[in-house]
Design brief:
691 residues; 5 domains; 21% strand
């Protein structure tokens, strides 16, 4: 019998030596350490059968050393006997709380030491045997439970095979149960057709709805081998097995390693296979192999039933289809008539010559006939004028499968003699290959309203044209005399006004200024007329928007500075190329910036900025003026529209922003304004240029 090993932990070397001598006389192997830290290391290096531990030690005392032993799963089962002096016995409670099994008082008696050690070793051995017995019992119960589960599973599969007509559902249950009980990546069942050299996968654990995947046996040598030999095939390393050399690339792609294939035999004939794949090296236990073989044997009936069921289904397919066709033909007429009859719009099924096979109640009401008296052929009987020919041609094209109008207006004479207009739509296909469905509604009032609206719109356009003609003619007629008047006034002021009184001089100045303003108004109205008529030629080309911005800034910045307003242009690293007429865009900017200068109080600021937004360049002019009253915003870009602001000058003719809108729209852009009591921001967009 091997000698038991004892670890003595005591900082008093004499006491430790005495304990060692006592124990060695009784045949124990003794290791001695003098502090708790060394004891922890010694136990891990050479585990003892029992530990004698001194209570009082420097550094880490016996209680803490005992606690650490009992907290470590590697050492908690080693019995610990605490050795303590009589005066330290009040600390024994702490030692027992830390996990100590027994104690000895100093000085230690030889017979008591031996008795305590043997008692604790016997207790340890008994606990070990009890634990081992429990483990054996647990393993036996586990094996028994596993066999019970296997038996229950086999019973469940057997009952499913014998009671269910849905064999594919049964086979899916088989592979799912195997996958749950054995750690596999895929479990599948396939039915083999040797005559065609193929197999049909009927169930797979990783693809539940696979149902009927056809595979060639030439591409699956493992299946071919099992069918040939009728014996199970186990391949531990599929990637390097000689049987699967040609399939190595496919195996790597599918990521599986171990392959186990069992034949499913019915009356000595291999009719299918049960295949298990795992992604790692896996050794199937004997009970797993036995279980899979039993499942394969039980599945043979289900597999055969699946084959017979499929054969019967194929043979009866034509009969079922014929039965369905008959039922469909019997039901179609009733269904269509029910749908037609309860539709809110007029519906009619007509032939190629416009004859009606059926017309619903709404259709009869629209055309003004009772069912027993409506004319047939329907279309020639009610349609009139050119619309009759259009309707017959459209119906004919639909029957011939040609492209043509499928919606048109049809003028009819109702049964009451009243003329009406119908909007008719043709179905995209033929009903039963024999009829075309027409849907129609009465749109007489709508068409009359549209005609009236078109006439009113035409009249309005004519009035607008006359207005534009009048404005253009008037401004042309005014341009020459006003120019002459302004020239004479300017000449009079240049020749000198020393002989005139101050009042006369003021009159001359007012006349010059008023005639100049009138010339500007005439020029603006002429430009507006040309823009409206589309006669203003624009030199639109890809150019940077910074050029007109910089020119407008150079002209207007001195005026802004004189008015006590700070005008600035936001810098940009991008050139912002847009399709524009630089001169006209400069005109827009001059107008917007000029308005901002007029209405921005001293000390305020005006900012001009350009940004890219998707496929357009946006240029904005923002001021810090009093803003535009909300009621003027909807009409601010209309002709002769002027916003009455609480502050700022009240001058201008109200055409500047209208000119801006016309110029921007001629560039295929848009202009808008956002305003509040903290200022206004006018923004317009131009199409960006992408080279």
């Amino acid at each position: 019998m091997q000698a038991k090993r004892v670890l003595v932990v005591d900082d008093q070397k004499i006491a430790a030596r005495l304990l060692r001598e006592m124990l060695e006389r009784h045949g124990f192997v003794v290791d001695v350490v003098h502090d708790g830290f060394k004891a922890l290391a010694q136990v891990l290096e050479t585990p003892p059968d029992i530990i004698l531990l001194d209570m009082i030690m420097p550094g880490m005392d016996g209680v803490e050393t005992c606690r650490r032993f009992k907290q470590d799963p590697r050492t908690f089962s080693i019995p610990i006997i605490v050795v303590t002096a009589l005066k330290d016995q009040e600390n024994l409670v702490s030692a027992f709380e830390a996990g100590a099994e027994d104690y000895l008082g100093k000085p230690v008696e030889d017979h008591e030491l031996l008795a305590r050690i043997k008692s604790n070793l016997i207790k340890k051995e008994a606990l070990f045997l009890l634990e081992r017995a429990n483990q054996v019992k647990k393993e036996a119960l586990t094996q028994l439970e596993k066999k019970v589960r296997e038996s229950e599973l086999l019973l469940e599969i057997t009952q499913a095979v014998t009671s269910s007509l849905d064999t594919r559902e049964t086979l899916q249950s088989v592979v799912d149960n195997i996958a749950r009980n054995i750690a596999v990546k895929r479990c599948s069942i396939a039915r083999v057709n040797l005559r065609e050299g193929s197999a049909t996968v009927l169930a797979s654990s990783d693809v539940p709805g696979i149902e009927g995947l056809q595979i060639r046996l030439d591409n699956y040598p493992e299946l071919r081998e099992v069918v040939r030999t009728g014996q199970p095939l186990m391949i531990d390393d599929a990637r390097n097995h000689p049987l699967l050399t040609e399939m190595r690339d496919q195996i790597v792609r599918l990521d599986f390693c171990t392959l186990f294939v069992l034949p499913i035999t019915y009356r000595s004939e291999v009719i299918g296979t049960l295949m298990l794949r795992t992604a790692r090296e896996y050794t199937y236990a004997d009970d797993e192999i036995r279980f899979c073989q039993m499942v394969a044997n039980v599945s043979a009936t289900a597999l055969k039933n699946a084959y017979l069921y499929e054969q019967a289904r194929k043979e009866s397919q034509e009969l079922r289809e014929a039965h369905l066709r008959i039922e469909q033909e019997l039901q179609e007429k009733a269904i269509y008539e029910s749908l037609f009859e309860h539709a809110s719009e007029g519906l009619a099924a007509v032939g190629a010559a416009g004859e009606a096979a059926f017309i619903n109640s709404s259709g009869l009401e629209i055309i003004g006939y009772r069912r027993e008296e409506f004319p047939n052929p329907l279309i020639p009987g009610i349609a009139r004028g050119e619309t009759l020919q259009l309707a017959l041609e459209s119906i004919g094209r639909s029957f011939r499968g040609e492209e043509g109008p499928r919606r048109f207006d049809l003028l009819i004479t109702r049964g009451t003699g009243e003329s009406r207009c119908l909007s008719v739509a043709l179905s995209a296909g033929l009903l039963q290959g024999r009829y075309l469905v027409l849907s129609f509604t009465d749109v007489t009032e709508e068409r009359q309203s549209r005609i009236s609206l078109e006439e009113a719109n035409s009249h309005l356009q004519e009035l607008t044209r006359l207005k534009s003609t009048f404005v253009t003619t008037a401004t042309h007629e005014l341009n020459t005399p006003v120019t002459i008047l302004h020239g004479y006034c300017a000449l009079l002021r240049e020749l000198g006004m020393e002989n005139l009184t101050p009042e006369q001089q003021a009159c001359v100045n007012r006349a010059c200024e008023s005639s100049r303003h009138l010339l500007e108004l005439i020029a603006t109205m002429l430009d507006l007329s040309r823009l409206e008529a589309g006669k203003m030629a624009l030199a639109i080309e890809p150019r940077t928007v910074l050029i007109p911005i910089e020119k407008a800034f150079a002209i207007l910045e001195p005026f802004a500075r004189k008015s006590g307003v700070i005008l600035k242009v936001m810098p940009s690293r991008e050139e912002f190329i847009a399709l524009l007429d630089a001169e006209q865009i400069q005109r827009v900017l001059m107008n917007l910036i000029g308005n901002a200068i007029k209405f921005t109080p001293q000390g305020g600021g005006i900012t001009v900025a350009a940004v890219r937004s998707q496929h357009e360049i946006r240029i904005s002019v923002t001021d810090s003026g009093p803003g535009i009253p909300e009621e003027f915003l909807p009409t601010i870009f209309e002709e002769f529209s002027q916003a009455r602001r609480e502050a700022g000058p009240r001058q201008g003719c109200g055409l500047g922003l209208a000119i801006c809108r016309k110029i921007v729209e001629a560039h295929h852009g848009s202009i808008w304004v956002e305003s509040s009591d903290r200022g206004s921001c006018f923004t317009f967009s131009l199409p960006a240029w992408f080279s």
